[in-house]
Write a structure and sequence with these properties.
By secondary structure, this protein is an alpha+beta fold. The chain has helices at 2-17, 21-54; strands at residues 58-67, 73-82, 88-100, 116-122, 127-131, 135-136, 149-159, 165-175, 188-190, 195-197, 203-204. Strands 3, 4, 7, 8, 10 and 11 form a 6-stranded antiparallel sheet that branches.
Length: 205
């Protein structure tokens, strides 16, 4: 039996392999090249997926409007939060405000070049509170009135843990109908619960 199998194998090699030795070699080389290319693509995708899962993600949440003690002014607070798994570095920001009688006020393209500061580090799942420039409090400024809105808007830029520069722009809308009748200094003028992410101005990159 073994002798028959040996003869058959020798016949198969002589008639089917040796005449096509070069072609078979090229075919195997192509198979190996394709396999190697597939491994490279897979490694690249895994690296990209790892970056997506691990990088820093910074968002900005409203944290209320607070009246300043001893002055006829208030400030808007925001929470700058890192929802990612790596530290956000070189964190810079700016915060501005506008009053409007329009609930659909257009924030436009917020220019991230206005960010300032030396750059902070924000640990994963950490947050820091920042405040705006003073907001006037008075008969023609922050007051209880239906159909009047206070918009808090701005931008944050940062490095995502892999050296990529990222940005987040934000725009929060406060309905001044939620302001107290008599605003007392040193108190919360409007809670963050009253804030809404506005229809325009919120973007991440």
């Amino acid at each position: 039996m073994m002798e028959v199998l040996s003869r058959y194998w020798n016949w198969f090699v002589a008639t089917s392999i040796k005449p096509y030795h070069d072609e078979i070699t090229v075919l195997f080389a192509l198979v190996i090249a394709v396999f190697a290319g597939a491994l490279v693509v897979l490694a690249f995708r895994q690296s990209k997926d790892a970056r997506i899962l691990q990088r820093a993600y910074v968002n900005v949440r409203p944290a209320g409007i607070h009246a300043l003690g001893g002055r006829d002014e208030a400030v808007a607070h925001v929470e700058v939060c890192n929802a990612g798994n790596l530290p956000a570095t070189m964190v810079k920001w700016f915060i501005k405000h506008d009053f409007s009688s329009h609930a659909d006020w257009f924030a436009g393209e917020i220019d991230i070049r206005f960010v300032a500061g030396s750059g902070h580090v924000l640990a994963p799942h950490a947050q820091m509170t920042q405040e705006s420039a003073p907001i006037a409090v008075g008969p023609e400024a922050l007051r209880k009135q239906n159909g009047r809105y206070l918009y808090i808007w701005g931008a944050v830029t940062y490095r995502d843990g892999f050296g990529e520069r990222r940005s987040t722009t934000f725009c929060h809308r406060y309905d001044c109908a939620n302001a107290p009748e008599n605003l007392c200094q040193g108190t919360v003028a409007m809670s963050a619960i009253a804030a809404r992410d506005h229809a325009s101005g919120n973007r991440t990159n």
